[in-house]
Hints:
Two copies of one chain form a homodimer.
Chain A: H1 11-18, H2 22-30, H3 37-50, H4 56-63, E1 69-72, H5 79-86, H6 89-104, E2 109-110, H7 118-124, E3 129-132, H8 139-146, E4 151-154, E5 166-169, H9 171-184, E6 190-195, H10 200-215, E7 221-225, H11 230-242, E8 250-253, H12 258-268, E9 278-281, H13 286-290, E10 296-299, H14 302-317, E11 326-328, E12 331-333
The structure holds a DNA duplex (16 and 16 nucleotides).
Amino acid sequence: MSRPAAPRVTIRDVAAAAGVSVTTVSHSLNGKGAVDPATRARVKQVAAQLGYRASRAAQALRAGRSGTIAFVIPSVGAVAEEREMLSLDYYMQLASAAARVAFTRRHPLLLPPPIETLDDLRELGVDGAILCDPARDDPRIALFEELGLPIVTIERDLGRPDHRWYVEGDNRGNMRLLLDHVAAAGGRRIALLSADSTWSWSADNEQAYRAWCEEHERTPIVEPTSLRHLETSAYDRACALLDRPDRPDAIIALAERYATGVVRAARERGLRIPQDLLVAGGIDSHQAAEGDPPITAIDLQPELQGAAAAALLVALTEGERPEAPRIVPSRLRVRASTQRT
Amino acid sequence: MSRPAAPRVTIRDVAAAAGVSVTTVSHSLNGKGAVDPATRARVKQVAAQLGYRASRAAQALRAGRSGTIAFVIPSVGAVAEEREMLSLDYYMQLASAAARVAFTRRHPLLLPPPIETLDDLRELGVDGAILCDPARDDPRIALFEELGLPIVTIERDLGRPDHRWYVEGDNRGNMRLLLDHVAAAGGRRIALLSADSTWSWSADNEQAYRAWCEEHERTPIVEPTSLRHLETSAYDRACALLDRPDRPDAIIALAERYATGVVRAARERGLRIPQDLLVAGGIDSHQAAEGDPPITAIDLQPELQGAAAAALLVALTEGERPEAPRIVPSRLRVRASTQRT
DNA sequence: CTGAAAGCGCTTACAG
DNA sequence: CTGAAAGCGCTTACAG
């Protein structure tokens, strides 16, 4: 059974133990004011010894801020679909990295309920948010701005070229890298299962794909694929592609889980990967890495993106004007699905 | 660009607008004290009109609690593996449901960094935690109790039969249901890929499996499978099973993603599912539902489990002594992998 | 270099 | 039924 809660160690306790005022404790611990270095050191030591940590509630009240930030995943239709989004490796890695950095900066990350109205947002009571993959003119950005709250997006809102607080990968460069790689692996007719959304990530990738095709004098083959029921949608689109008389010999499956659907469609048709069909993913995942076969994919390095977004957001909540946007480097993970050797 | 933050509407503003004292506002809004019904109604209306919401920071400071709770996922080895856990459908659905309920009860759910020491926990500053799948004698439970903080587990700690604050499914009943179903579908030699852990969920399932085998005079075939690299581990174990001279004609793949590994192993050997091999999962997921073939599985109803855990925990933080443990009903989802018709 | 005091926005014991 | 006041634990402008 749990014992009664230990009474909290407050700044007064530290002050008493160190024989100074609470002002001096506060200054010492926060690196503010002009405190005798010896005093500062002693205060720090006493505080550590007593296991003192400033009350987040008190700090928040004093500062007039909540000290928390929200992590908001993309909304794709109804709640049931949100769950599918939530369990994607990419978002979970973003969330986990963002949580770690935010926490270090004394801004715990919280998992919010869906935000649709200004009232929802007021009720949420956060100092700001990280919003993943905003739709074009995402209404949630407007809500935050309405309340004067900073919002950092991962990927950008195509309807707001002025909103520069975002983090993203070099989407166009990544798509070119992927295409060059697939072409070098022998892909002649390279199709794209694009993500049917208004996300900048989708648009950037598709645009780069089309530009690359034009430069290389190849006919673009684009199949817009739903972001709901990722695997099944991709399977359907891949079937359509593979049943064409001029079927592609390579498919780039843009969104997470798309590749699994492509692999299934290929298998059903007796097409071997990579011998008969090259497959590559626009975004890496556990499933891509451990699937059968393992799928070559772009690793957007969500740990770096999430960390960058959190750092940016915390800086904004503190009134700073940090450098933005931030472009995070990505990596091409080459795997069996594009290696014919 | 974002406008300056709107000044917060405080209880004083409401009091002034309603022409009463802050005491009366507080009482009216919180249903406390003896307030004239007409006054109460007026205050509520004015508050709503001004868009007033009590400052969580102020309430937390007053109450001496933080007003937040942590959602802690199982630790399986290093950080990299935690990420794999985090992106499982099951935990995400738990988290999402728990977040919703907790938020409604004014206890936002936060995503904590790993908790290993008492200091980590103090630094975290939450009022309690929901801990998923505790290991036997999970050290984190002891840490919370050390600080007098309530902790609700999803599944129970096998080393602490006294800790009754948990939520779980009817694991043994579920396994029997699954076995009866698989046997009815024609399974004669039914093997179990069990989860190699000290979780109660694993233990309950394995125990029920063995008991069922004994009752039905069948030889148990148990392959303990690692919880790291779920799919690959399951693939390896399934290969071992399927290469035995007396290979099973049915495999129960306990943990999430195990079934995918089993399917791969079967396919490589030219075994058709369900004709040559029945496959069922101990836990449902998107992957199971949308895979090829769709996999019969137990749906633990994580939305209900997460909601129950949050409700239980919030009650505990408020000093109540709610009914516990709570057993949440599960569902058998029958799919193509066990239907030979 | 140090400290007394005000005040952030609540809730509640208490007085009327 | 209503309200004035104390106090939760901080930070900071200000005085010394």
